[in-house]
Write a structure and sequence with these properties.
357 residues; globular; Rossmann fold; Dna Ligase, domain 1; alpha+beta; homodimer
C-alpha cells in the first residue's frame, strides 16, 4: 500500500464544518497537516487547519491550487458537487471517490446499489410525478415517507404521508425535485455502524451503535447497542458488501432500522465520518476521524476496538449555551464546534459520557 | 469564578512545541481559539492554532499585540523569561503566574519552597563555588548529583559525582552557572502526579503515574502505578500543599522518588502540562491539556477520573521513523508532533497503549 501523506505531509479536506474540524485535529495528532477548503468565511475547521482556502466549490483556480498543495483529499460531507470531486480527482487521489459520493448523494441510486449487493432496505419507488406517487402509494401502502432524492439531511426534504389523499400536498412539498417513496417499516429501534476500508482493501468496523433521533435530528448515540455481538456481526457483514461493492476507501456511516424480528434494513449510507461515531474519540485508541485520515493518507487502518462504554448527546441550537453545566458533569467530554450563531436545529457541539466497561 | 474565555474566546499560549500543540487542540475541542506565540518558525503548535505570532520573547510590540488579542494566557514551558510573563501579566491574566514559574525555574528556590510547605525532598545544598561544592559533598556524602539551578531539562545540566575527588571536574562542567548539590536518594522507582488548581481554588488530581527514565529522558509512563490508592493519596496531599502554597492556577506536574520504605520525596515540579500526563488524552474524559485550558480560561475543572489503563511510550529521535509499525499495533494511539528534524534525544512523538480496566 502506497503512503500518500506520511508524517509532515498534507491532506486536503473539503468542507469546514465540525466534521472537517475533527478530521483536521485527527490529522494533526498523526503529524499530518490539514488544508481545509470551504466556501464559508469563519468555517469551524479553519481554526485548526494548517492551511485554509475560502472559495466556492466551483472556483477552478482555487481548486487547482488546493489540489497542488495536498497529497490526497477527502470530504466531510456527501453534498459537495460531484464535479468538484471529479476535477480534484484529475490531479490528486480523492477518497472516497466521486462514484461512491454520487451514489450516496441520491437516495434512489443508493437504495438500488445497496440492494444490488444483497443488503436489504425498506421498499421504495421512484417518484418523478404525482402519478408516480399515486402508483407507488397503491403498491407500498400508507403510511409512507416521500423524500427528495438529493440534498436531504437531518430530516430535511421529507414528508410523511398518512393516507393516499395526502399525495398531492406531499408532492407539492417536493417543489419539483426528484423524489422517492419509502414504504413504512415497523422498526423497533435505529442502530448504525461506522466502518472503514483501506486502500489495500482491509476493512475495520467499530462497534454497533444505538441511536435515538428527535424531529429527524440525531439526539443520542450509545455503545454498546442492544443485540450484542450477533447483531454487530450481521451489520458488519452488510457493511463489507457495501464497502467492497463500491471499491470504497475511507470511513462510511451506515444507518439501519432494527426490526422487531431481529432483521436489519439499511436506512441510508453516508460516505464520510458520521455523527453516530463521535463516541470513538473517547472510547477507542483510534477515532473514526483518525481512521478516515489514515485511509485517505494511505496509512494502515487503526484498531477500532473499544476500551470504554459511551453515550454521545448532541447539543443542538441553544442547548450549547449550557456549556458550563456540561463542563461540570462527571465522566463528560465536552465538544464545542466554534460556530458563532446558534440557529434552531444547528449542531453546535456534543458531549460524550464515558464509563468503564 | 469569572469565565475569562467562553466558547468563541481566545487563549494565548507561549511556546510552540508539542505541549503547546496539544494545548491548542484541547482548546479547539472546547470551542476556544488558541493564539500561539513562539520564536521558532515552523513551530509544531502553529499547525493547529487559529492565530500565531512568530517573534522573540523580548519583542515588546509583539507581546503587546499578543496580549491584546487574548483573554488569558499560559505557557507550555517553565523556561520562558520571567520578564515576558511579567510584561504580559500587566495587561492580561497569566496562569500560572510569574511567581510560580520563577520558583519552578530555579531548583534551589523550588526545593526551598517545597520543604517550606511541609513536603520533603532529597537533601540539597547551594553551590556557588568549588568551595561550596566541597563543603556540600562533605555534608551530603557521595554519590551525589550536581545540577545547574536553571534551564535544566531531560537530564541536561547535570553531573553525577561518585567520589569527592571528582568535585573540581564536576564544578567545571557547570561553566560558572549557579548550581545545587543533591544528596543521593536510594529510590526504588519514580512516580509522578499531574494535578490542577482552578481559579476558585478547586483541586483535581489525575491518578498517580509510574515512570521510567533512560539517560535522563522519560521513556515510559504507566497507570495505574504500583502502590495503589494509599500512595496516590499521599502524593495528592503533597500536591495540594504545593498548589495552595503557590496560590497556583493551572496544571502542574510533580515528580517523586518513591523510596523502598514507602515514603515519597519530591524530585521536581513543572508548572505546566507534563510528559507523564500524556496518557490522560486517551484514558480520561478530560485530558491534562484540556484541564489546563479550563483553568486558564476560568472554566470549571473537569473530572480527572480514569476509564482505562494506559502505558505511554515516548518516541525519541529516530524512533519516530517507525511510525507505520506503531500505527499497525492494537490498542495504540499514535501521536506525532510535526517536528521536521529528528535530532538525537528530541521528543518526536509518543504512543499510548490503552486497555480496559
Amino acid at each position: 500500500m502506497k503512503v500518500l501523506a506520511p508524517p509532515g505531509g498534507t491532506v486536503g479536506i473539503l468542507g469546514g464544518g465540525q466534521l472537517g474540524r475533527m478530521l483536521a485535529m485527527a490529522a494533526a495528532r498523526l503529524g499530518i497537516k490539514a488544508h481545509v477548503y470551504a466556501p464559508e468565511a469563519g468555517s469551524p475547521a479553519f481554526d485548526v487547519a494548517s492551511a485554509v482556502t475560502c472559495a466556492p466549490y466551483d472556483d477552478r483556480a482555487a481548486l487547482a491550487a488546493f489540489a497542488a498543495s495536498v497529497s490526497a483529499a477527502t470530504t466531510e460531507f456527501e453534498n459537495v458537487p460531484a464535479q468538484t470531486l471529479a476535477l480534484l480527482g484529475e490531479s490528486v487521489p480523492v477518497r472516497p471517490g466521486a462514484r461512491a459520493v454520487a451514489i450516496a448523494q441520491d437516495r434512489m441510486l443508493e437504495k438500488d446499489f445497496v440492494n444490488r449487493v444483497g443488503v436489504p432496505t425498506a421498499p421504495y419507488r421512484k417518484v418523478d410525478s404525482l402519478e408516480d406517487l399515486r402508483k407507488a402509494l397503491a403498491e407500498l401502502g400508507a403510511p409512507a415517507i416521500l423524500k427528495t432524492r438529493r440534498f436531504g439531511y437531518d430530516g430535511k426534504g421529507q414528508v410523511r404521508i398518512r393516507a393516499p389523499e395526502e399525495a398531492a400536498a406531499a408532492f407539492a412539498e417536493m417543489k419539483g425535485a426528484q423524489a422517492i417513496l419509502e414504504g413504512f417499516v415497523p422498526f423497533s429501534r435505529e442502530v448504525s455502524l461506522v466502518a472503514a476500508r483501506g486502500a489495500d482493501g482491509e476493512i475495520r468496523a467499530y462497534d454497533l451503535t444505538e441511536n435515538r433521533h428527535e424531529a429527524g435530528i440525531l439526539r443520542e448515540s450509545r455503545v454498546p447497542a442492544r443485540g450484542g455481538a450477533e447483531l454487530s456481526a450481521v451489520a458488519a457483514d452488510m457493511a463489507r458488501r457495501i464497502l467492497e461493492g463500491l471499491d470504497y476507501v475511507g470511513v462510511m456511516g451506515i444507518e439501519f432500522f432494527a426490526l422487531g424480528d431481529g432483521r436489519l434494513l439499511v436506512n441510508e449510507i453516508a460516505p464520510r465520518v458520521h455523527n453516530t461515531g463521535h463516541w470513538t474519540i473517547e472510547a477507542c485508541a483510534v477515532s473514526q476521524f483518525e481512521q478516515q485520515i489514515r485511509a485517505v493518507a494511505g496509512w494502515p487502518l487503526g484498531d477500532p476496538s473499544r476500551h470504554a462504554d459511551a453515550t454521545m448527546t448532541n447539543l443542538i441550537g441553544q442547548e450549547a449555551e449550557a456549556w458550563e453545566e456540561y463542563a461540570r458533569q462527571p465522566n463528560t467530554a465536552v465538544h464545542l464546534y466554534g460556530k458563532a450563531e446558534a440557529r434552531p436545529g444547528r449542531k453546535m457541539g456534543h458531549v460524550t459520557r464515558v464509563t468503564r466497561i
